Amino acid sequence: MIIFFDKKTGQVYGTVEGRVHEDTKDMMIKPGHVKETQVGKYMVPFKPVYKIERVPIEKWFVKDLKTGEVEKRIVGTERRKVGDGMVPDVKFAKLILAFEAGSENIYDYRVRLDKEKKVVGFIKK
Predict the structure, then answer these.
(1) Which of the residues in the chain have pLDDT under 50?
(2) Where are the domains of the chain?
(3) What is the torsion angle, in degrees rounded to the nearest 10, for the CA atoms of residue 5, residue 3, residue 112 and residue 39?
């Protein structure tokens, strides 16, 4: 998710949904009367989530020596780490997920910035 906001007031101007934004890094969402220098852009960092899953171990065996026919058999299972989606990698992850799910409206909030003008959360209006 990319969030565009006013650098002074924290007012949210717009968002771009999604996890990876290689093709939208130069994009800008703002009202027509606002200068681009007044608009901040925050790309929410995401991290992958993994789970351990049991998967079958398959091996090929010769079924018939004369014809050379083979068959695949399951000989056991093994535990393997597999991807299970992505989650926001920020302290306010639950709020980001609520914005994405539509249970909270991002326009009811403004961006909270620290002294270095970095996004550290949201404040409900």
Answers:
(1) none
(2) 1-45+90-125, 47-85
(3) -20
